[in-house]
Amino acid sequence: MKSILSVLFIIVILSINSHSQQSEKNIHLNSGVDLVSSYNWRAIDFGNSPAIQPYISLSAFNFELSGWGSYALIAQEEHDGKSVPFSEIDLSAKYSIPTSIGTFSPGVVDFFYPYEHMRYSDYKGVDSGESKGAHWVNVGLTYTGSESFPISLTIDYAIHNDPDKPIYFEVGYPVKIEETNLNLFVGAAKGSNKASLYGIEDSKFGIVNAGVTLSKSLTITKDFSIPLSTSFVMNPYLSKAFIVFKASF
C-alpha cells in the first residue's frame, strides 16, 4: 500500500521525460496557502480551530500529484493527556481523461495525521477491527461535466486502515450570479458502524454533507486579488450545521 503514490510519482516523471521534446507549457507547478475559519471536510469539523492550509502540486500530461496540509492554530485535540493542535498531511495523485461529455478523473489520496505522533513509515492496516497504522488511503473517481452541463460527481471508497470501509457519493452544480460563483452540493455516505468517520450505522445510506459555497475575488490592485469563499454546510443525518470562511493566497 505504501508504494502506491511512489509508483504514481514515477509514472508522472517518466511521462514528463518521454515528452521532453514537447513544449514546457504542458508542465505546471503550483503552490499556495489557504486561511480558513475552521477545517471542515464533508461536514466534519477537524480541530475546532482556525487553520492554515498550504499546498503544492505538479501536473503534466493529464497527471497531477499534490501535497496538502492543514495546521490548526488552536490546540483542541487530546493526545497522551495533552491538548494539541490538529494537523493533517495529504498526498494525492489523479489522472484526468477528457471526453466529449466531460472529464473523468480517477485518483488516490493518502491521509496522515502528524498530531498523533505516529511514524510516517507506519503503513499498518486494520487489525482486530481497529485502525493500527498512521495512514488512511481512499480511491475515487470524479466526473466534471461540459460547459453546457457543468455538473460534478464524486465517489470514493476507503481501501486501507478503515475498518468501516465507507463509500461516499457527492454531486455538485455551479451557478454564477453577477460576480459571485455559487456551488451547490449534496453528499451521501454508507457505513455500518456509528463510530465511523461519517457516523452512519446499520449499513444505511445517509445524507451527510449538503450546502452551498459562495466565491468571489477581492481586488487589491490591478494585478492582485484575493479569492474569498464562504460555505454554509449541513449534515442532515447528524443534524449539524457549519459556516466556513476561506481566503486563498
Give the helix/strand layout:
Blueprint (H helix, E strand, L loop, with lengths): L3 H15 L8 E10 L2 E3 L2 E3 L4 E10 L2 E10 L4 E3 L2 E3 L2 E9 L1 E3 L2 E11 L13 E2 L2 E2 L3 E11 L6 E9 L6 E11 L2 E11 L14 E17 L2 E12 L4 E9 L1
Would you kindly provide a written description of the structure presented here, covering whatever features stand out?
By secondary structure, this protein is mostly beta strands. The chain has one domain: Porin. It is 6% helix and 60% strand. It has one helix and 19 strands. The protein has one helix at residues 4-18, and strands at residues 27-36, 39-41, 44-46, 51-60, 63-72, 77-79, 82-84, 87-95, 97-99, 102-112, 126-127, 130-131, 135-145, 152-160, 167-177, 180-190, 205-221, 224-235, 240-248. A hairpin with a 6-residue loop joins strand 14 (152-160) and strand 15 (167-177). The longest helix has 15 residues, at 4-18. It is globular. The two termini are 33 Å apart.
